[in-house]
Fold:
Amino acid sequence: MHLFSGKNIKRLGITLCLALNLIAPSLAAEEFMPLSEVHEGMHGYAKTVVHGTKIDTFNVDVLGIMKNKGAAGGDLVLVKVSGPVIEESGGIAQGMSGSPVYINGKLLGAIAYGFPQSDGRIGMVTPISDMLRLWTVDSSHSKEIDSHAAGLIPLDTPVMASGYTANGMAFLTDRMKDFHMVPYSAASATTDDNPFPLEPGGAVSATLVTGDLKLGAVGTVTYVDGDHMVAFGHPFMNKGSLDYFMHNSYIFTVIPSRNIPFKLGSVGAEIGTITEDRGAGISGISGKVPESVRLHAVVNDLDTGKTGNLNVRMIRNEGLLPMLSSTSVYNNVSNTLDRTGEGTISFSYTLFPKDMKKKPFTRSNMYWSSKDIAARSVDELYNVVKILEQNRFEPYDLRDISIHMDVTQGRKTAKLLDASAAPTVVSPGDTIYVRARLEPWRGEIFYKELSFKVPEDQPLGNMILEVRGGGVTPLPYLLQQQKYNLTDEILERLRNYKDFDDLFDKLEKEDRNNQVVVEILDPNVSMISKDENDGAKAEIQDKRPSKSPEYLKGESKPDQGNDREDDSPKSRVDTDYVIYGDGQFTFRVMAPEDRDRELRKLSRSNRKVAAEMRNGEKEPSTGEFPEIKDSKQNGKSASAYENSNFLIDL
Structure:
């Protein structure tokens, strides 16, 4: 008798997208071996694939029952394995997890665990009764994920990767360490495009990425009933109810290893959905199309004219999506450039939410790297996807990611040399005009002009204005923030947002590296000397942007106790370069009548100095005179820069 007949399994919402029934019909006469009937000395066999799709068998002898060692406190069966298949593979191999074990013709369960120093001949079996419970999980109410066998080592599921370059594999391997997975480069089989039915002992892949790239964990099917199947006998990633792609797999060989051998296989044709990943194994349904996130990435190498197009689908999981999307895009950049090292990249991307009523996230930016432009190109995508997917306010599930990149080996950076600003004495609501002088790498100096409006509620007294590249964090903030932690620190910063809309808007509008930015600097932290006078000068700090993501700058600024709804106001202007450098002006904010009186005084002083210069009585001094290059700039007369501060040229 079946413990769980396929007719009794809840199958609402299943979409049959394949004309072929891809799960082999269950054997009506097959029975299950109750754990109560299992005792030491019983002999049986197990099924698995060690080459191609051909199912082989090996011997299994029962050694005893391990109480309370299984998933959710269940029992495991301790067994010893032997036979030509085991000798050829060097013992129980990774990828054999899920291999069905039969005693007296009855299905006992799946090979799932092993002892690392047992020469690969001792293993543990997860009872089939525990695995079939995966079919009865109510995902709408199930919040708790069963833990796998405590104190035992599951047979790690080898993760096969195809379509990745050598650099792409190295990048993927590094990023997957956080998930305790090791990917292996795998070939493609000639049969990969042809779906075939699953059967007990056959190979199956729980797949994370499919399309131009494939990334999936290969294991063994334990039992099938109609369009349902169970496999592995232990968790893949223990994610509970979710959607992985379910694929066929072709096994090339078993790779020997000093630690534990593993099956090398392909990620073949897509045949359904893995719906549960828990302590007792994984379960899946054939013909069901999983929910996923599509990624389309275009990379143009401006130096060679080569264009790389990438189209993949990734599982919709907020913990994995940042890693899966960034490693996929990295591989496309690496493959298109066919080189490593320095470069400049300009890109734009859009994240489309599953909920069509929500606004897509669109942003562009520009980066320069002297070491690895491919790696630098995906940092922002990784962090933005992570912040939005894991925000504390509301779900922001994605359905599509579109990204366009232009890359050149040339260095497109510019240094902020100096700037001038006027007037130096202002009242709330006044406009300050700033003129920045920039020098491109091995290029001609150019100018950018900005206007900045003093906030209506700006307190009277000194106001420090920061002029910087969009990707540069002012040194005082860097000293306070120290080094960014992109895990707990990011989540901690989310507390500074009022709601999801606030988070979304600030991320989308955050400064870009190719912008010149003017903003108020926190008066409690400043690089300006304490003995500055009204005509103070501030050096521009010639430093590189911090390693922290540019779109997180300023998120953790302390509350100054004001009632402003938004962040400090700022003004920005775009350039064709990644901008480095920053510096500060000090302005005096006064009541309008005091401002006018002070400006008249400064004007008389300037006219006196000008007269002395015309009469040769005094040499010009950059510390006393503003720098004015052109009589008119964008319709503004030179008088707009009268009484300006002047930043020292480096």
